[in-house]
Amino acid sequence: MKLKFFSFIPHAHKWHNIRISRKGAISPTGRAYFSTHVEAQCKGCGKRLHKIYYRDISDAQAIRWLG
């Protein structure tokens, strides 16, 4: 029996469907940067994550920073 309240219990997200792309982005200060965009989805709760790093980082570093 799976109870519905399990979605309210905090858990460590397990990210999958990770997509890393490099695009140009405009920072909040107005400068244009070559940036790294990371998108992922949690296996357990389905939460989607979108992060933008305003510098070019490696794929391994981007995955490590999903935290």
How would you characterize this protein structure?
- The structure is a single chain.
- The chain has one helix at 59-64; strands at residues 15-26, 32-42, 48-53.
- With 67 residues, it is mainly beta.
- It has a three-stranded antiparallel β-sheet with strand order 1-2-3.
- Strand 1 and strand 2 (32-42) form a beta hairpin.
- The longest helix has 6 residues, at 59-64.
Strands of the biggest beta sheet: in what spatial order?
1-2-3
Run of helices and strands: EEEH
Strand content: 35-45%
Name the poorly predicted regions.
Answer: none
Q: Specify the biggest β-sheet.
A: 3 strands, antiparallel
Rg over C-alpha atoms, rounded to the nearest angstrom:
15 Å
What value does the average pLDDT take? Answer: 80
**Record field, number of beta strands:** 3
- The structural class is mainly beta
